[in-house]
Design brief:
two-stranded antiparallel ribbon; 82 residues; alpha+beta; 6 strands; two-stranded antiparallel sheet; 2 helices
Length: 82
């Protein structure tokens, strides 16, 4: 399997789990929302050059397996090498 395609700026990789406090109790679940580094007006990442590893490597084969890559994403998982 290999990943083909390119980013089409659907921004779904910018949806993440948000904790309201760094010391949030375990019984208070995080909420799903837009990454705080996504500028919603310009639809650009404020920290693109220094973005975290998870952002740089999305989508992974595992993300496809888990169904975490939305249909709107410009990347696809296909059979075959190279």
């Amino acid at each position: 399997m290999r990943i083909v395609g390119e980013c089409n700026r659907c921004y779904q990789c910018c949806v993440c789990w948000i904790y309201d406090r760094p010391d949030q109790p375990e019984n208070v679940p995080p909420r799903k929302g837009w990454c705080p580094e996504l500028d919603l007006e310009t639809k650009t990442c404020r920290i693109w050059e220094t973005r975290p590893e998870g952002c740089r490597t999305f989508p992974t084969e595992r993300a496809f397996e888990l169904g975490a890559v939305p249909e709107s994403c410009g990347f696809r998982l296909v059979k075959g090498g190279n």
